[in-house]
Design goal:
The chain is mainly α and 92 residues long. It has 2 helices and no strands. The protein has one domain. Helix 1 runs antiparallel to helix 2.
Length: 92
């Protein structure tokens, strides 16, 4: 593998990670807006407001999982592509 291919793979990994990060942050902001509006009413007996807070917290957790697992998955994707290219070049 030459350095240009290594840098290309690093940029590709960064691009995928950036896209998953943006998607995760968007989901987190949706969760914050869902839960944040009703945080002051957390002690309210109104179950609808409490369920919105819980839904918002779940959305925040999903956003974190999307961002983190997206970064790991993009690493494995780019790494497997590079490994496949190296093996095919070696066998050719």
């Amino acid at each position: 593998m030459n350095w240009s291919r290594a840098w290309s793979a690093a940029i590709s990994w960064f691009g995928y990670t950036f896209l998953f990060g943006i998607l995760g942050v968007a989901i987190i902001f949706i969760g914050i807006s869902t839960a944040g509006i009703n945080l002051q009413n957390l002690t309210s007996p109104n179950m609808r407001e409490n369920s919105e807070v819980i839904l918002g917290l779940i959305e925040i957790l999903v956003g974190l999982v999307v961002a983190v697992l997206g970064a790991v998955a993009s690493f494995f994707k780019v790494n497997s592509e590079i490994t496949g290219e190296e093996v095919s070049d070696y066998l050719a």
